[in-house]
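Q: For a teaching handout, I want to show students what a protein-ligand complex looks like in C-alpha cell form. Below are the inputs, and the small molecule is adenosine-5'-triphosphate. Please produce the holo structure.
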Amino acid sequence: MVLDVIVMGAINMDMYVHVDDFPKYGENIQAKELDQQVGGKGSNQAVTVAKQGVNQVLIGAVGQDDFGKQILTTLNQQGVKTDAIINKEDTQTGIAVAVVDHTGENTFMVILGANMALNAEEVEEAMAPLEGKIFLLNLETSQESVLAALKMAKKKNMYIVLDPAPEGSYFEETLQYADLVTPNQQETERITGITVNNVEDAKKAAKWIADQGVSDVIVKLGSEGSVLYESKKDRFTIIEATKVKAINTVGAGDIFAGVLASELARNSDDLVHAAKIASKASALKVSRPGGQDGIPTKEELDQM
Ligand code: ATP
Ligand code: RIB
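A: Here is the structure, written as C-alpha cells, with adenosine-5'-triphosphate included.
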C-alpha cells in the first residue's frame, strides 16, 4: 500500500510548567500547574496527520522506560501507526520541559535521549518496506538518521517536506533533498543569514532558499501568518493567520506541517490551498490549552 504521509522525527514526553510571567534569571517563582503530554515534533506531526484521516506511519525512537511505554500507548490511541518506532536499549525516552507564560509563548529545554540515538541503519530498515506520497521530516533526531531518511525518501520518489526545526539542529546538506521547506523566522535567519522582521524580508529569504534548488518554500511568521514561494510559477502568496487569542503556541509549527502534508497527499497540485488549511489548523491549536489533545481533526477544520 502507498501511504499518504510518512513522518519521521522526535518523540518526547513534554512537561509544561504554566506561569504568569517568565521567571528572571535566578528567581524562584510559583508556577500555576504542571501538565504532562506526549510531544516531540515527529509525534506532534504524526498525530496531526492521523487526525486528518489520511494513512500514515511514524518513524522515530523511544527508550525502554515508562515514558516510552506510555507514549506508544497514547500514540496508538490517537490513531498513529507505531510499528516503525524503534525501542532503544540503554537510552532514555526524550523529555521536553517547557515554561509557558500567560501569552501562550513557550521556552523549551529538551533532553533528546533516544531521538539522538536513532541511527542510519535503523532508519534504512524502517523505510525499506514503505512507499509513500509525502515524506515529512524535522531535525530533532540525529544527523545520521536525518540524512539516511532524506536519501531513502528521494530514492523512493516521495515529495519531501522539510520542517527545519529546531533552529539549532539545521545543517546545510539537508536542503538539496527537500521539495518544500517550512522554516519559522529564526530558522530562516539560520539558513539564509537574512533577518526576517516582515513580509518583504520573508519573500527575500524564501527566494534565497529556492535559489539553492528547493522548489517550494513557506516562511512562517507566527501570528503574522506565512509567505509561500512557488519557484516553478515564480509566485509569492501571502497566507494570512486566522486571528485568535493565543493560549498555548506549543507545536503551532508541527500542526502547520502535519496539515500541510496531509492536504498535499490529497491534492499535490494545490499548495496554496494546503497552506491556507494548515494556517487555520495551527491558529485553532494555538487558541486551545493543552498539547496533542488540542490538535484539530479534519471535521473540526471543515466546520471552521
Ligand atoms: P512552534 O511554536 O511550534 O515552534 P513555529 O515557530 O515553527 O511554531 P510559527 O511561525 O510560530 O511556527 O507558527 C506556524 C504557523 O502557525 C503560523 O504561520 C501561523 O499560521 C500559525 N500561528 C502561530 N501563532 C499564531 C497565533 N498567535 N495566531 C494565529 N496563528 C498562529
Ligand atoms: O514543536 C514542539 C515540540 O518541540 C514539543 O512537543 C517538544 O517536545 C519539542 O521537541
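A: Two things your students might notice: The chain has a mean pLDDT of 96. Residues 158 and 276 are 22 Å apart (CA to CA).
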